[in-house]
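Audit log entry. Action: structure prediction of a protein-small molecule complex. Ligand: zinc ion. The ligand was supplied as SMILES and no pocket hint was given, so placement is left entirely to the predictor. Protonation state taken as written. Sequence taken verbatim from the request; no trimming, no tag removal. Recorded inputs:
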Amino acid sequence: MYILSFGRGGRSPNSATATTLREGRPAAQMQLFCPACGQATAHRVLYSKNGCDILQCAACGLGRAQANEFDPGAYYTGDYFSGGHADGYVDYRGAEAVLRREFAHTVDFIRNHCTGGRLLEIGCAYGFFLQEARRFFEVAGIEIAGDAAAYCRQRGLRVVAGAADERNLAQFETMDVIVLLDVVEHLPNAGETLALCERYLNPGGIIVITTGDFGSLYARISGARWRLMTPPQHLWYFTRESMQRLSQAIGMQMESCDHPWKVVPISLIMFQIGRMLGFRSAGVAATSRIGVPVNLFDAMRIVLRKGRGRRVNPSSLDSGKRWIRSHDNEDKGSS
Ligand SMILES: [Zn+2]
């Protein structure tokens, strides 16, 4: 397990937006295993939000939420995609047209790195990305929300309901592309899941990840009020450095890392602003169908490449002798 328990009693009650800044108090520090650094490192408690402590690795900047009682299976239900959770989506299916246009751009981006073959999306929701990707790839998906997975299958997609674990990944052939769009930050064991994905990739295959950038200016300025600081839904807060180290730890190379523009449904923007200001905006169907280009430069798009030769032995990474690559390979291939 990556999340180690530690002896801090008096967890704040689980009110929806409770935030406790630890200003004026000595910062609590502890040693925890960092999945990106591959070893125990010093972690600082930044603040508490929604009853979770937010900690950060001093070495790589990887943030994490301590949410020991979080059950993803109970949380990611149909409700999550239709405004039922303050941290979820307001009207995911109503925004299909906007989302698919955006996903078509993502497919174009992926084709700059891999032109075809088998593609697996982890956390494929209602399959809108897969519908775009199937024009160029043989596609499959894994989705934890059972009704969303069923919806995908009704529309002719090969989608398994459940977690991205060994049992579910083993149901598919090895892949050329594995995609996690705004998903990795939700995974209880993000490092283990990415290591598992690497094993199910063909030599030369890629993992494409989009996630928040905890090291971005906007994230650092907004602190606990950052739009993506939504524990226990988001359990991990990656920085470019932590993603770089994690890719190394699982024997992959970071091929590109950029902060792309994104067309977002107006309803989702209103929903996120409402959440920041402490109210829940009512969904207006029309605003789900209109998208506007947005870039706060606080979200990353990352491509990791598996080598074509023999992989690094991951056990050598646990000995503390691992080396950190220089940054000469970053920001290539950004579109
Ligand atoms: Zn670290």
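Audit: result stored. The longest helix spans residues 96-111. Confidence is low (pLDDT under 50) at residues 1-26, 311-335.
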